Structures are given as structure tokens and as C-alpha cells.
Amino acid sequence: MRKTLFNRLLLSYMPIFIIMVTFTFFMFFQILSEQNRKEALNANKVLSLQAMRLIDTSLKAIDNMVMTETINNKELINFFNNEEKNNMFINISAVKKMQDMISSYPLIDSIYLVRFEDSFVLSNATSDKLSNYLDEPFIKKAMDPLASKSWSGVRSFEQFSVKGSKPVVSLVRGAPFITGEKGLIVINVATDSFQNSIADLYDPKTSFIGIRDAVGSELISGLNDKEQTRIFSNYVSSYTGWSYQSGLVKGKVFYVISSLYNIWFIIGIAMIVLGLAWMLYVTRRNSKPVEQIVDRIRGYRLPLSKEGGDEFSFIESALSNIIEQSNQYQQKHEEDRHLRMRYLFHQLIEGDTGLTHDEWMVETSSLQLPYAYDRQVVLVTEIDKYPDFCCQYSRRDQNLLKFALRSVIQELAPKYELVLWAEWTSASQLSAMVFVDSAEEAKDSVIRELFENVRLWSQDNLKFTVTIGIGEQVAELSNAANSYKEALRALKYKIVLGENRLITSEHITNQGQVEVYSHLNAIRSIIQSFRLLEEEWKTKYDELFRTVKLGLLTKDEIMNLMNYLIYYLGREMAGMTKEFQEIWTTDGLPKLSKVIDESHSLEQMREESVTVLNSLFTGLQEAQDRRLHGATIRDMRKFIEEEYANPNMSLDYLSSTFNINGKYVSKLFKEETGQKFVDFLFDIRLQVAQRLLTETQTTIQDIAEQVGYTSAISFSRVFKKVVGSSPSEFREEAARRQHG
Questions:
Q1: What sections of the protein cross the membrane (predicted)?
Q2: pLDDT at 514 over 50
């Protein structure tokens, strides 16, 4: 089949292509020309600045030299002082110095000195009376006090009548330099030397430089043909007041060529308009075959076709509707399958579905699910330190790593002859349902081996670890929720048993809330020792974590215990001095709360919390040591702990023992410990009494006497008021807990 349509379209749009390329070509060279023009202008500006700076620098150097010599040079000073009339040696020395100055500064054409006292003029070439000197008019003008003593404009200078005059600029300075009362020194610089000094800066065939003095007279002339030149830059020297002008040779021609930019722009607009007109014509001609196709399609009544829109949209819609009628069911099935699978998985593990075996077989065929065998077991794989995982990786990388973890489980399962179904059930947990055809122990070991390899593979390749909770096998598909709950329960003990491992029901025991409550007294004892700044708190704290680990508490139970520790410690700090409270609120509480919230294991929680508590303990000790009576109160507290069984223990007893007023003792005790003397004494007696009631069979009367009470009745009354039960009831309850 010949490509007639292709050739027609190609030839139709070819003129547009040629027009646009031509326009682009001309615009490129026009822009290049404009750029060259701007660069030429910038070059001329730089040329003028360089010429001005070069000449100004040379003239300033001469000016500074004259100032220095008139102040420091002995020969010139002797000439102007004229102490010895007509001393030829002084004149010769002055002439020699002028010749040295001319040699040092090639720009200088001539120098002469004018002495006011005897109207004598001495130059580097001659000497004479002022009235006979050819430059007398300039000297007379310079002798005027109001006359400028800087560089003059261009003037004619004639030293010898036989040589004729030459254009120069002159610098006039008084002698001495400050007052100028004794004479003048005149430096003449020929204007030709300026031309020579800047000749290397530019090419006279392409550029020119003109210099005019302050009144507009030319020092250096530009081109003679003014009609062929155009000035592009003009700078005025702040030192001499001279103007520096530069431009291009035949600059007017260059300017005219550059001004054609507007003409080219108009031509370009015209070419664009012509191209648009041609494009409209060609598009209209080539759209006729498409319109014929649309008319033929409209002859068929398509059930899903829509009116409106352009011809191509109509054709696309018609073709899409035809294709949709043939594969609509398949597309819908593919779009919904994954969502239906996830929804069904969540229903199974949450116990919200009551599918029978036959119904499951229907779903298996529809959703391409695994075949349901006799038994099922659910495992939950949890990413360890998930907050750190989220901080370390971007959202895209997180999804990629999660996909890799799920893929490796699905790829390894066939190697162990296992059938499983895995879905992400939360941000950090990947749940897998394994289908087994028997309840043999061998299958349990194979499942554990599979997920042990998954754990090791994650550790080695994914750079993060996982902990896997394994539920019990269940016989019915509807009971998969029980296996899922068992797996989640196993993960709750990760904080005690450790991360990066497999946890089954064999590793955990059913611990009741009674054991959790049994740790509260230990926490209160730790806080009491901590508040009293006793070093024993560390031993008690380590013992608390040891018993918690042996008790195999869940993460929620451990968090509750640690939150109670923070609460009780905060309550104790609130009763202490303001300085102690500030240490707790600004340093202790925030750090301790952060450690407990971010800990991933029991050992990590213990180590980091001990570090925070040690720092807080040291701060409290230092604060107490700074107080005047801190040591005295510590001695009192130690004395009370040793003599708590003394029934005479009271404020008066302490006052007499430590030789301090009783009311003052009470005030100091409250400020230093945050606790009243009576409460402190009773806490010690109550702890001993509870230990004796729990561990011994000593009578209530004997216990009362051992803790400082002479009467068992008064002891029982105070004990029940604080504890909530009598001593005998407390002993019975403790016995039931031990044997229950």
C-alpha cells in the first residue's frame, strides 16, 4: 500500500518548516549581531576607562613627585631660598635635579622654576629673567593667588623661538609646597606623549580615543572624518576634569546595520503570520478525510458513544466502547481481586467471616487463593524498632523494603513445601496464614525453619530485624482469628524476651494482674530511697527489673509499671523544695519519659533509665549539699532509720539529740526531704511491719513493739488508716497471694 496520506502531509507542512527554519536562521544571526554590538559598546567603555586611568595615574605620579621634591629636595630648596646671589653651583644642581625628574618620568617634556625674589626663571635647558622668558604670560597668570595650581588645559609652550611652540599641559605648584611664597615649579607634558602612552590599548583601524580638556580643547584628536565616526562612550576624569571619548571607526555604518534589528523583527512577524495562514489551510484540507470517517461512524448507533468533543475524541470513544464490551468483566475482576483478597484476609484473622469449606473453595477459584487444608496457623512478622525504620528510610524506600520482605516469604514457602497467604495487616506487621494438611510435629518444625530463615535473611539483606510471633494451629478456617490473637499476644512479650527472634506460646506463661500489682510496693520503696538520696535505690531498681523479666510481663504491663514509677517520683518531688522540683521538671521528667517511650527492650529501658536517674540523683545531691543544713538532716534521717523502734522517737527527742529547736527541726526536715518528720518515721515503721507480717508469724503485739509502738491497738489503728486493712487482714491476704 502506497503511503499517499503520509506523502501528502509531509509535502503540505514542508513550506511551514522552510519558513520557520529561515526565520530562525535570520533571527540567530540578528541576535548574534546584536550581541556583538553590545560587546563592542562594552569594549569601548572599557577602553575609555583604561585610557583615563592610565593617564590619571601617570599625572598623579608626577604631581606626587613634585610635591615630594619641593618639600624634601635640598637643591630645589636652596634655589628658592636664594641665600647666595647668582650662585652657579646652586643653579647647576637645580638643573641636574630637573633632568633627573625628566628621566624618571618620560611623560615630562620640560620643567622650569620661577623665583619671585629676583624674578628669575631656570629651566632644564636655559635661564633668564622673567621679563625675557617666552612663557611669561602663563607665569604671570599662574602667579595670581586665585589661579588654579593643578593641571592646565592644552596650551602652546615655546622655550626657544627657533624651535617653535608645541601643545602641552602644565602642572603649576608653589614653592614651598604649602605657602608658595617663594616661587613656582612648572611641569610641562606634551600632548603627543599621551597619544604614545595609550597607543597599545587599541587598534586605530577599528577604534579611536579622543581627549578634551575642561574647556573642550582637544588634547588627543579622534578621526578627522567626523562623518564616519560615532562616539559610544564618554567619561570625565574627577582628577583633571578632562573628558575621554571613544568609538568605532566607521561607527555610523555599524550603527545603521545594528538598527536593522527592527526590520528583521517585522520580517519575522510577517513570516510567522504567513506560516499560520498556510497551516490553517493545510489543516483544513487534511481534516476532510477524518471528517468522512466520523460521518461513517455516526451511521452506527453505539450504545456508549457520546456526542460532542472533537473528531479524534469521538473516534477514540467509539473504539474504546467496542473494546470495553469484549473485556469489561476481565478488567473489573483484575482491578477488584487484590482488594477483595485483603478484605477477606482481614475478615479471616478478625473472625468476621463464617465461610464453609465449600464457600472457601469458591473464593479460592475466583480470587486465586491457596487451597485450604485440614489445619491453619497464623504468624505475625513485626519490624523491630519501627520508628527508627521510618526515620531512616523515605516512604518510597519503606514500601520497597516491605515488598521485599513479603516477596521473600512467598518465594521461600514452596521450597519448604508450604502453602501460605501473606498480607500487611498494619504498618509494621506482616501477617501470614500457613495451610497444613496434617497436624504432625514435623510441619511445626518446618514452619519455624522457614520463618527462621526469613528472619536471618532480613537481618543480613534488609539491614533491619524482625520478630515473629507464632500462633497455635487451628482445625477450622473460622478459628484462624484465635491463632492470630495468639501470635499478637506472643509479640507483646518481645520487650522481655528480646527482638530478632521467633516467639511461640511455649515461651510465655499466663501472668495475672496480681503479679503486676506486687511490683508497686517495690517501686514505692525505690522512690523513697531515691528521694532520701540513699545509694540503695540502685540495687532495688536492678532487682525490680530482674523480677519483671522473670515474671514475663507484657509490654503494656511494663509500660504501666514505669508510668507509675514516673508518677510516684513526680509526686515525691512535688513535696520537696522548689530547687528540687525545678531539677525534676526541667531535666528528670522529660528525659525519663522519652527513654521509657522509645525503649525497644527491657534491658535497654533499664540501662538508659538508670543513666537518667543517676544524673538526677547527682543533681539532687549537689543541690542538697549547697544547702546550709543538708548534712544535719542527712544525719537525722540516718538516726531515725536506726532508732525507728524507739517509742520515744519524736521531734523533741531529735531536738535534744541534735541540740536544735524542735520547730526548726520540723521546718528543715520538710524542706530537705519534702516529707514531714511524722510521715517519714511512719513510712519506715510501716515497711518493717509489712515485711514482718508477710515473712514471719510474730504476734501483732510483738510487731508493734518492734516498730516503736507500745500498744498493739494504736498500731493497728494507724496501720488500717494508711493501708486500708488491719494487720491481721493484711497477713491473711499476703498468705493467699503466696499460695494462690
A1: 12-32, 260-281
A2: no
